[in-house]
Amino acid sequence: MNFTVYPAIDLREGRVVRLYQGDYARQKNYAIEPLQLAHEYAGAGAEWLHVVDLDGARSGQPVNLTTLTALAHSGLKVQAGGGVRGEDDVRRLFDAGVERVVVGSVAVRDPQRVIDWLDRFGSERLTLALDTRWRDGEWCLPSAGWEQDEDATLDELAPHFAAAGARHLLCTDIDRDGTMSGPNLSLLRHLRDIAPALQVQVSGGARALDDVRAARDAGAAGIVLGRALLEGRFTLGEALSC
């Protein structure tokens, strides 16, 4: 299985930002323009770009479509989500040039709808985002920009989607997102135990090249890198060479 490094761009009002543990009140802005950053990542050798429309995630519909369209034509294959709730949203992102659409909240709230999309669009065109937080002895699945609790759990939905033919799973440990405290490899191993057919992308907490290597060696299909790249902990070129 190939290991893919996904440099990430989080968008809010068309700007590059990062949140701390998904908290919209704890936002850090970066001066670089999204398209310039994408070109820098392409120049460093990236194949993929992971993009999150934070405004869309909160509002329930894609918001930063103009910027997403520009990023999707930057020379990188774009995996993007945020605010995808209906089939029209999926098609809108495909029309914008997005290669793979990330579906999160709707996957938690209405799994059958997403299974129907897997049948319609194919498992290579969708990434399921089951972003999770450990609460009361289980991996819970908040939705709507991680601001609303849901009843479903990771242990219920990951095997369910795997059995339905899903291929790509993005899993963020919310409590580590933006913290640079290291990725949760125990969570990765747990996912490989309960849903071995899924190709898991690790997200949240990466801080050093050793974290990239550790995720790869633990069986991840890829890793999403955000703040560590933006703040120069290591370069994308170094991560791609791991």
UniProtKB/TrEMBL annotation:
It is an enzyme of class 5 (isomerase). Keywords: Amino-acid biosynthesis, Cytoplasm, Histidine biosynthesis, Isomerase. It is found in: Cytoplasm. Its main location: cytoplasm. It catalyses: 1-(5-phospho-beta-D-ribosyl)-5-[(5-phospho-beta-D-ribosylamino)methylideneamino]imidazole-4-carboxamide = 5-[(5-phospho-1-deoxy-D-ribulos-1-ylimino)methylamino]-1-(5-phospho-beta-D-ribosyl)imidazole-4-carboxamide. Gene3D superfamilies: Aldolase class I (3.20.20.70). The keyword Isomerase applies. Belongs to the HisA/HisF family. This is 1-(5-phosphoribosyl)-5-[(5-phosphoribosylamino)methylideneamino] imidazole-4-carboxamide isomerase. The gene is hisA.
